[in-house]
Amino acid sequence: MDASQNIAPKDRVARGGRGRVVIDIGLVLGTLLVVKYGLLGVEALWTYAGPISLLSALAVAGWRLRAGGETWAGIGLKRPDSWGKTILWTLLALVLTTAVGIVLEGVVRSVLEASAIQPVRSNAGRFADVPGNTAAFVYWLAVAWIIGGLAEEMLFRAFLITRLERLFSRIPLGLVFAVGLPAVLFGQQHFYYQGIGGAVATGGVALVSGILYLLCKRNLWPLSLSHGLINSIGLTLIYTGLQPPG
Asked: Which of 79, 194, 200, 207 has its CA 20 to 30 A from that of 184?
């Protein structure tokens, strides 16, 4: 694997042009936001707003990749050169993202408590039916791997980072924006049920994940596996009553 796979060269922009990149980003994010906030307004469907909107956006992203002559394998989902290294990167990602998430959420909680500000969640209780409920636990576990472990990494890391990297390839700190903006969006997408603490924590986790995506030479598997494991641990704690559901 050559170094060009680690940081995409600027001349890749010419392949589709910045106009195509802007269209790609606009269509994907438009789908994600319109579907999600449309479903959040429906009482019976709000808990499914995240998964449905993400899968919808992912379908559009796949279409845009094919239209540009690309594949998901080309931006991170191909077979790793070494599964041993992938496992090591997975463990590193697991430790780093867990630590960052815990620290950031703790900091936000401390700031809110010191300021006597009540944290606000637009929708709480997403996992209220999980404690002691095996059927609900298995359902959300599947969502944790399919949506969190795979779809979120494909969209927010592989697709958006590569698109924004091309868009910002000619400006100073372009790579910083390419990694940082999806992280901010990722955190915002979790606010509706995790509140400000969860949004900041997941945004920080996404920032670390974006950096690891580049360091892993765009191998998405360590991030996907670590993300699924983190989600599974959290759900297991809720299911067993060791952690509150909301």
From this structure: 79
Q: For position 194, what pLDDT does the model report?
A: 85
pLDDT at 192 over 90: no
Residue 246 binned pLDDT confidence (cut-offs 50, 70, 90): low
Neighbours of 81 (CB within 10 A): 11
Alpha carbon distance 38, 45 (integer Å)? 10
Closest CA to 213 of 165, 179, 170: 179
How many Å apart are CA 111 and CA 13, to the nearest integer?
43
Class of residue 4 by CB neighbours under 10 A (exposed 0-12, middle 13-18, buried 19+): exposed
Does residue 18 surpass a pLDDT of 90? Answer: no
Quickly count: other Cβ atoms within 10 Å of residue 10's Cβ: 12
Tokens (6 digits) for 234: 């959290």
State mean pLDDT over 29-45: 93
Which pTM was predicted? 0.87
Q: What angle do CA 225, 226, 228 make, to 5 degrees?
A: 65
The per-residue DSSP string of 185-235 comes to: HHHHHTHHHHHHHHHHHHHHHHHHHHHHHHHTTS--HHHHHHHHHHHHHHH
